[in-house]
Amino acid sequence: MWERKVNIYNVFELRCKTTCYFGVGAIEKIKDIAEWLSSSKKDKVLIVSDPVAYKVTGAWDKVEKALKERNIGYVLYDKVTPNPTTDQIDEATKIGRDFGAEAVIGIGGGSPIDTAKSVAVLLEHKDKNARELYEGKFIPERAKPIIAINTTHGTGTEVDRFAVASILEKEYKPAIAYDVIYPTFAIDDPQLMVTLPYKQTLYTSIDALNHITEAATTLARNPYSILLAKETVRLIATYLPQALSNPNDLNARYYLLYASAIAGISFDNGLLHFTHALEHPLSAVKPELAHGLGLAMLLPAVVKEIYPSTAEILAEVYEPIVPGLKGNPAEAEKIAKGIEDWLFAMGVTQKLEDEGFKDSDIEKLTNLALTTPSLDLLLSVAPIKAEREVIARIYKNSLRRM
Question: In what residue span(s) does the Fe-containing alcohol dehydrogenase-like C-terminal domain sit (predicted)?
Fold first, then answer.
């Protein structure tokens, strides 16, 4: 395979809207980023992370040293949880405002980086709060510069304009998408991922798989989103088993991270639809549910529904996982079962029923999918009409194994 002909220690710039430094050793680019902060007179920064990621990955030692060398002051907010909340965003924003932060650095996976993006908006909109941001009460016109130091290979948030947060009291988990929250700089260094636990390695990679499944099949799909989708599936099918069996395999981590990044670019261009719109209610109701696990449990049922209208695309995209598809609409059951079998083989053996959801929850989940702010936009670009009956059927078909 040609991948072995690539020097994974050659740190290159993955150019999209964000300048992303990519490769083994990319964390050293924090020195250049600190120099940029200093020369831009941004000498106070807020750092956003969870209680573990910034330390256990080794990122913190590099970041702190680079900031100190450039006399850049910082404050740290490290209370972000999986499925971050608007309360956490407001708490971090207050710390940043009190300190006078002029930029925000997010260290971690999707949760810390999405929180950092949200805080960067609110630091520029001092009369607003996180609930107003996520309920669409205003459209942000600006944000402080965002630097994303990514520690997982799944979300793609380090190279896109999306962020997600939960409003717990309403059981809402909306998404936002604004150009002002593209990170100015991002760091994708596979070295920061070797400490990822087994399940997080699995779930984050499946997040990327869902990104491209949706981006390749929305009404906004385009040749670019489909091209990236094909390569993402090939890379995940090849390298996820390797990373699961040997967490220290930097080559496997490199290509899973690359798959995650191009999947982020894919859905930044092609958007998302059913799987994310229906997962958000799951982890809004049960905040302890891993986002990638929720997506994995829904994916086979979503593909079964949309395959008849997107058969030619999905047959080609999913060839590495479900080989031999002809692009015939009658293959919907075959591809759905094939994807589910692959997920089980990778180690995702749960369905919604195993996570405590019941038939009696379907109506509530369907209502949340249809009423949570922003999810209507995702559903509006689904390849088939997102009728209540379709949404309910996806949930029902995800309760138990096919």
Answer: 201-398
